[in-house]
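dumping this here before i forget
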Amino acid sequence: MKKLLLLFAYLPLLLSCKNQDRIDLSQLQLNETVESLINFDDAKTIGVETVEYPFCLMIEISDGANYTFDGIDLTGQKVFFQINSELLKTDSLTQQGGGHIDVQSFKDKNELADILKKYQAAHTVYGTRIEMKTESLKKQILAKLESKYGKGTQNPNTDNGIYWNVKKEHKYIFFAPDYDRLIILNNTDLSKTCYWDIMNGTIDFGGCNQEVYTQELLKNTKPKKESTDKLTVHIDKDWNINKFVVGKTTEQDFLSSSTNKNFERMIVIDGNTASTTEISYNNEDKTLYFYFSVGHGNGDDATTNLLTGYSLQDFKQVDVSFENGLRPGISYQKAIDLFNKSDIMNVDDLKFSNYIEIKKGNHKVTLNFDEDYLFSGIYIK
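structure:
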């Protein structure tokens, strides 16, 4: 019995020591070094994640078991750290639309240092984000925030968002329960009048000049160059584009071709598995897109990634020609007359739609028409 009592006596001490090993995110100044906040044994990635925030480098910890928030256990929640990267203050990411993810894992301090150098990023963090997947966790965190900072200000852009401008701590705090996020930023080097991200919208702290703020966010955007050379695109009677064949042409074929000029590679990543689900290329005008499947090595072997389709939605930006009688600006009815009714998949809807769907093997060709019912774009996949 004495041994059992002695064990229970030590339990509070053991639990206390375990909690002391965790990092309390509510106590951070948000100028700590990156490596001091990372457990390198955790599952983690670093890179660009435009849904979270386009203009900085982001570290994502898959499970916040090594972190707390003012005593609240964060096991099972994602934890993020924001790192300033001058390289990412450009509009090239935001122009891509949707969620652009380009992340990688890292094992140790040396790999981390190399990645920070590649992105011209700071060695310190300036923000943290906490996932809040449950209503219970949201209530607990909100109670802690209100106990320390008061009721906060209602975010006019969301149903339940609240924010605090904590000037004495040089912090912005955004409680965004509609998007399962708590965001805390050191605002020392941020705008004192404006803030924007996808989950909070634009916040005006007083005197916000949106134009000036946007220019600061995009300060490293390169000036647009006026180009007189249009990309030449030829689509044959079998819908092959510049001799690229859907289902046969590889990514390596594309990379080695004369068409591949000023194209940017993008990947789509499954957030649950961190595996690549699609590879695409678009040109600098965001006019022509090529889509590839993911082959060997999670897409790293370009000889095994096959063309799955392409999209061309603005004929004015390219010099395009067709072998089957189509031409840019042809009328809807004339385009319909070029094809056998048996080849048109949406033949019963032609009176109501402004597009034509044509069956081509295992793929579908969609011809798009503008508000004047003039041929304006093509998509095959």
